Amino acid sequence: MIEGRNIICFANEWHGDPTSKHHIMRLLSTRNRVLWINSIGLRRPGLGGRDLRRIAGKLRSFSEGAERIHDDLYIFTPVIIPFHRSGIARKINAAVLKTSLDHYIRKLRMRDVIYWSYMPNVSYIIRRMDPRLVVYHCVDEWSKFSFIDGTIVDQEHELCRMSDLVLASARSLYDSRKPYNEYTYYLPHGVDYHYFHNGRMSGSPPPPDIEAIGRPIAGFFGLIHEWIDLELLEFVVARNPDMSFVFIGECSVDVGQVAAHPNAHFLGQKKYGELVEYARRFDIGLIPFKINELTINVNPIKMKEYLALGIPVVSVDLPEISVYSNVVRIAPDRDAFDVALKEELSGRHLASSEEIDRVARTETWETKIEEISKLVVEAESRRAHC
Predict the structure, then answer these.
(1) Can you state the percent helix, strand and coil of the chain, rounding each to 5?
(2) Count of domains observed in the chain
(3) What pLDDT score does 111 carry?
(4) Could you tell me the CATH number of the domain that includes residue 85?
(5) pTM of the shown model
(6) What is the SS3 assignment for 362?
């Protein structure tokens, strides 16, 4: 792993469900100093209660200053004018954020800073700084989110061009970013292997809300949003009344029709530290995504988390999952999804538990950090010789 670097990371909210960003920066912060910048936003907020609560929370966090998570990991929430299409707003935002960043660079004694972004719209900010290196880590096809401003595409292209290193979590993301930067690399997600692998063997009793649910359990954890195929779920839930379907995560879409079935259980969002206590009750892990321009660019972390738990996985046919067809049952349509569930529950497993574990064990975040570190060192060398 790289050591002794100073990293300013633009990402989403730190205090949310852990994502690839959280895992990577938490590990890097064990040997480097990291200042995580909470989301600068990608859309204009509305006047609904949820957005207003988020704005109030951001203002409160900004007034409290940077939060220290541990010795070398700090979280800062900036105040941003949320009119991302406005050139004037971007100039004001860049000036205000530069002042804040300069303050924390001095306060945290950061020198030769690496600017590392998971957000596609930060080029106008980084241009005002003095980076040792610029890394763009692309994990989503931003242009395909329904709630994101269309100007994001041009902003992301600019970020790609100015970066010293571009990492892409899906092959399709790599293919579409490579023309803008020759130093673009395909880097699929890893897994918090020890957390899930060791957690499945916990001797503690399961939480009461899942202990009361009859088995077998086909389960899903994660945000239930526009990319979840609710029609598929309603179909398989209705087809399998003797199977329980458990969903753990925040629901930001209407799941009423699925939840109306007595064997469907939506348990809400859980803290990451509690997640494995729920997931170890799963007999099968589900990946019920819609197939569209958004999801074909996704590399689902949960697939590897299910494998680390040692449970069979049934998934829709996504490009990033197809390469794991030796350990994951991939269903091209809803009837095949239903058949795959029944096959696994009947004991006719696609892969042995040993093979499932072998795949998960070779895909840890620690392994990914070593790959990233080599690429960062190479990028530093290129920049030094320019």
Answers:
(1) 40, 20, 40
(2) 2
(3) 96
(4) 3.40.50.2000
(5) 0.90
(6) coil
